Amino acid sequence: MIYMLDTANLEAIKKAVDLYPIVGVTTNPTIIAKENRPLRDIILDIRELIGSERMLHAQVVADTAEVMLEEAKALRKLDPEIIVKVPVTPQGIKAMKLISAEGIRITATAILTPQQALMAAMAGAEFLAPYVNRLDNICGDGTQVAAEMAHLIDMYNLDAKVLAASFKNVQQVHEVAKAGVQSVTIAPDVFDQLLVHPLTDSGVAGFMSDWHNAYGDGKTVLDLL
Ligand code: E4P
Fold it and tell me: Which family does the record claim for this protein (predicted)?
């Protein structure tokens, strides 16, 4: 599983990069706007935090393919490794053809149907981001859409990966993982929840208590070897 963090918050990124096997950070215009800072600073600061080996995804916002292409080039100028997110509108699909021809990596975003994903992959998108919770919220089936996308990628032998997105709980992440998606991007609060279990906490507390009763408070394995 390829894990990414869906945020532009530096504290959250710092914490997650330290603790978890995160290989990328994704943003969208709403996530960027929340930070209320210049876009340039946000991108440069995230890059500094995550290093050159992790992925950073940032979205274009223009409504024509030509201007999206210019936005993509400007983002690449700022961060040569950036992966540009493009929505799966008709202009977005046109932009994907233009942007991929420039050798810029693309994540197709705002995907709600497998057919949008298939066309985005054919237009040059490397990652395909279905919005799982937004589908579940309208009585759709986000997992099913993500699973069908993964199936289409296999069936047509496409050079693309599902990047399942828009999660509001751990069960949604679990369902897409079981469905075989290659990657997920998760907001920090849900990411933290992936590890939470009260029996894990009580189990670890029991180990610590038995250990310290036998060997003394604060003793680690290092003290005893
Ligand atoms: C992914 O591309 C989006 O940035 C994001 O996951 C959307 O999540 P939301 O539905 O919680 O806004």
Answer: Belongs to the transaldolase family. Type 3A subfamily.
Task: Out of 3.20.20.70, 3.40.190.10, 3.90.180.10, 3.40.50.1220, select the CATH number for domain 2-194.
Answer: 3.20.20.70
Nearest CA to ligand 1 atom 9: 166
Closest listed residue to residue 170, CA positions, set 200, 196, 139, 194: 194
- Return the active site residues: 85
For ligand 1, pick from 2, 5, 27, 28 the residue to mutate: most ligand atoms within 8 Å of CB.
28
pLDDT in tens, 33-89: 999 999 999 999 999 999 999 999 999 999 999 999 999 999 999 999 999 999 999
CA 104, CA 60: separation in Å to the nearest integer?
13
User: Does ligand 1 have an atom closer than 6 angstroms to the CB of 134?
Assistant: yes
pLDDT for 88-130, tens place per residue? 999 999 999 999 999 999 999 999 999 999 999 999 999 999 9
CATH 3.20.20.70 occupies which residues in the chain? 2-194
In angstroms, what is the span from residue 131 Cα to ligand 1's centroid?
6
